[in-house]
């Protein structure tokens, strides 16, 4: 059953909030501008570090013994990541010989979802109707139901046990005769679900986790199947408070690395610009393919951060221009028209500002590209100016 809540704001409240949002808008633009500037420098310097590493990397075929001649050299090598360490989850008693052992915990809880619809009123006021709905779901953290809006669902959540996610890493992972440092070891992927039986789990230890005092025999609530330890009466029909713990392990695997040799282990290569580079790929990957992947990843991250920066600049400008549409909302249709116009201006100016920031950042590195971006920005500013004149007319 849905629960609704209606809130109202008069025109003066909305106007005060919109003027207060101007400061926030400037802060958002400043932060986004800093992000755009930093990202261009990061992209260029990362590309430089990748290129510099590629020039000095040598392909090593045999890693079965530590070669003193490779000391300080950047190498590309293919081998198997192996460990003799037995990893143990001390809470559940689960053991495995693997690169890592993962414990993933989920709780069956009531969750609150909301949907709001806002409508403008004559005179500049605004009414918001928020509808709250409630569902039973598996979630990664316990949900505090005491803050639910609907009194009927308030305080309905409980948990049988409070357990945290945790990952256990093998202290020593060998790569031929070499030992992988943490930054490479933690890059190994490929986790798979474990296959557990009751004998693999310390039932006595798990019993102590169960906090519900109504269960006289907590061991009856512990079910082990596949990769899961289930705390509850019936895994097929979960109740609020049930807990599901899934175990995964990352097995030993073939990997390919690019890193700098330091005695019997590795460190990241530090380029002349201060940026570092190393790379690990699962399976057997050639040196050229790994450097190509590094360059592609750098460009992908550059575009993600550019888009994020541009979006936040536009959001900041929308907040700065928002008082204009609120002023016009005395007559809702007028406010809507003004809002659409200021939204378009914010988009054009935000894009133009972002391109200028990116262009200035590139002046030092690629002046031709910077010139093109500045020209595009000038066109966008002119379009924004023209739009403003037409709106004023």
Count of DSSP helices? 6
Q: How many E-type strands?
A: 19
What is the overall pLDDT average? 91
The coarse overall form would be flat
Which ranges are low-confidence, i.e. pLDDT below 50, for 5 or more consecutive residues? none
Largest sheet composition: 8 strands, antiparallel
How far is it from the N-terminal to the C-terminal residue, by CA?
A: 51 Å
What does this structure look like?
It is a single chain. The protein is α+β, with helices and mostly antiparallel strands. It has two domains: 3-55 and 294-392, no CATH class; 84-122 and 134-251, no CATH class. 39% of the residues lie in helices and 27% in strands. It has helices at residues 11-56, 182-185, 203-207, 287-328, 332-363, 367-392; strands at residues 3-9, 58-60, 74-82, 86-88, 95-97, 100-120, 126-139, 166-169, 174-175, 178-179, 192-193, 222-225, 228-231, 243-250, 253-262, 265-267, 269-270, 276-277, 279-282. Helix 1 packs antiparallel against helix 4 and helix 1 (11-56) runs parallel beside helix 5 (332-363). The longest helix is centred in the N-terminal third of the chain and has 46 residues, at 11-56. The two termini are 51 Å apart.
Task: Write a short abstract of this structure.
This protein has 393 residues and is α+β, with helices and mostly antiparallel strands. It folds into two domains: 3-55 and 294-392, no CATH class; 84-122 and 134-251, no CATH class. It has helices spanning 11-56, 182-185, 203-207, 287-328, 332-363, 367-392; strands at residues 3-9, 58-60, 74-82, 86-88, 95-97, 100-120, 126-139, 166-169, 174-175, 178-179, 192-193, 222-225, 228-231, 243-250, 253-262, 265-267, 269-270, 276-277, 279-282.
């Amino acid at each position: 059953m849905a629960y609704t809540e209606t809130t109202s704001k008069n025109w003066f409240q909305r106007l005060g909030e919109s003027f207060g949002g101007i400061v926030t808008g400037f802060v958002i633009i400043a932060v986004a501008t800093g992000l755009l500037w930093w990202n261009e420098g990061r992209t260029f310097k990362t590309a430089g570090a990748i290129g510099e590493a590629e020039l000095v990397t040598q392909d090593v075929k045999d890693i079965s013994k530590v070669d003193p001649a490779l000391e300080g050299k950047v190498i590309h090598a293919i081998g198997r990541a192996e460990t003799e360490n037995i990893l143990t989850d001390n809470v559940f008693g689960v053991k495995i010989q693997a690169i890592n052992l993962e414990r993933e915990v989920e709780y069956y809880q009531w969750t609150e979802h909301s949907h709001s619809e806002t409508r403008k009123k004559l005179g500049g006021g605004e009414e918001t109707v928020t509808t709250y709905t409630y569902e039973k779901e598996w979630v990664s953290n316990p949900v505090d139901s005491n803050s639910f809006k609907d009194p009927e669902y308030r305080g309905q959540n409980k948990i049988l046990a409070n357990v945290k996610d945790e990952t256990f890493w093998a202290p020593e992972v060998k790569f031929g005769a070499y030992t992988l440092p943490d930054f490479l070891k933690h890059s190994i992927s490929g986790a798979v679900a474990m296959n557990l039986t009751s004998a693999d789990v310390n039932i006595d230890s798990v019993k102590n986790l169960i906090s519900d005092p109504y269960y006289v025999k907590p061991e009856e609530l512990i079910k082990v199947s596949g990769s899961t330890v289930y705390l509850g009466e019936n895994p097929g029909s979960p109740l609020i408070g049930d807990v599901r713990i899934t175990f995964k392990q990352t097995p030993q695997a073939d990997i390919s690395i690019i890193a700098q040799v330091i005695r019997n282990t590795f460190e990241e290569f530090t380029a002349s610009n201060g940026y570092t580079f190393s790379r690990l790929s699962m399976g057997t990957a050639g040196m050229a393919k790994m450097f190509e992947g590094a360059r592609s990843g750098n460009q992908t991250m550059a575009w993600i951060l550019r888009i994020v920066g541009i979006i936040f600049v536009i959001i900041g400008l929308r907040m700065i221009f928002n008082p204009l549409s609120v002023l016009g909302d005395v007559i809702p249709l007028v406010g809507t028209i003004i809002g659409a116009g200021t939204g378009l201006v914010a988009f054009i100016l935000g894009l133009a500002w972002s391109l200028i920031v990116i262009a200035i950042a590139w002046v030092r590195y690629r002046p031709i590209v910077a010139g093109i971006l500045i020209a595009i920005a000038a066109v966008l500013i002119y379009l924004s100016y023209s739009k403003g004149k037409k709106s004023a007319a």
